[in-house]
């Protein structure tokens, strides 16, 4: 789905609707000492094989999350489109 790079959205800091630049949200790196990583490391020692998590069926697509930056005051907040989609593309506004 094509999403415009600039959208009008409410800014809490400005207390009004302003133009916001959208940027695709990218998650940070995973924590090395998280429980799942520790179990994996412990399980890999010796001849035990990989730690098996409970089997869950994952959905094929996600709701896209963006970081919206106000063009007036540069405040940032999350902007989520509440529809599931496989592919998202930021495009310039069509004339």
Written account of the structure:
It is a single chain. With 95 residues, this protein is mainly β. The protein has a single domain, classed as Nuclear Transport Factor 2, Chain: A. Helices cover 11% and strands 34% of the residues. The chain is built from 1 helix and 6 strands. The strands form 2 sheets. It has a 4-stranded antiparallel beta sheet with strand order 2-3-4-5, with no helix packed on it. A two-stranded parallel sheet has the order 1-6. A hairpin with a 5-residue loop joins β4 and β5. The radius of gyration is 20 Å and the shape is elongated. 6% of the residues are buried. The mean pLDDT is 89.
């Amino acid at each position: 789905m094509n999403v415009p790079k600039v959208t009008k959205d409410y800014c809490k800091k400005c207390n009004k609707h302003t133009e916001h630049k959208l940027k695709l949200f990218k998650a940070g790196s995973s924590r090395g000492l998280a429980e799942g990583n520790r179990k994996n490391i412990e399980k890999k020692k010796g001849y035990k094989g990989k730690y098996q998590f409970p089997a869950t069926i994952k959905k094929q697509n996600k709701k896209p999350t963006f970081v919206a930056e106000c063009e007036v005051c540069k405040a940032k907040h999350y902007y989520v489109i509440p529809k599931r989609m496989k592919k998202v593309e930021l495009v310039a506004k069509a004339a």
